[in-house]
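Q: Here's a chain of 166 amino acids. Please give me its 3D structure as C-alpha cells.
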Amino acid sequence: QADFAAAGISITPERQEQMDFSIEYATSTQVIVVKSGDTSIASEEDLANKVVGVQTGTTGDMVYGDPENAVQPKELKQYKKYTQAAADLKNGKIDCIVMDELPAQLLVDANDGLEISSTELFTDSYGLAIQKGNTELKETIDKVLQRLMDEGKIAEFTEKYSKEAL
C-alpha cells in the first residue's frame, strides 16, 4: 500500500522476503545498561533471571518481548522514555536496560551510578523498506542516502534523535 517506509526499520531476512531495502544507512549495537559495578550480566542468557527495562517499540522491546525468543527475561518492563527506566534502575526496581548503544552512552553520561555492561547483545542494521521489485525507486533512494551519509547528515540525525529518545 506504500512505495516505501522510513523509520529505523531493521533489515532482517524475514522482512527481505516481503520487501526490498535500501543500502544500509546505520547500524546500532544493542547494549545493556546496569548499575555501576554490577557484573551479574556476563552474557545474554543472564537476562533470563533479570527484570529488564526497554523503551516501548524499540528493538529491545521486540526481541525480548517476543515469546519465541530463546532468552526470556524474568520480567520485561516497558517505558515511554529511557530516563524513566534509568530512575527505576537506580532505585532497584529493574535490573538493567536493553537499548541502542548511542542513546545508552548519552543516558550513562547523564546519570551517575550507571554504566554500559561489557556484554553486547547484537548489532542491528537499518534501511528504508521499499515495495518489492521497485528498482527505480530503490536506486533513487540509495543515491540520496549515500549523499546524506557522505555529507554527515545521517550521523547528525542519528545523534539528534538519540537524544530525543531519552
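Q: Can you summarize the key feature?
A: Helices lie at 13-18, 59-64, 82-90, 101-110, 135-150, 153-165.
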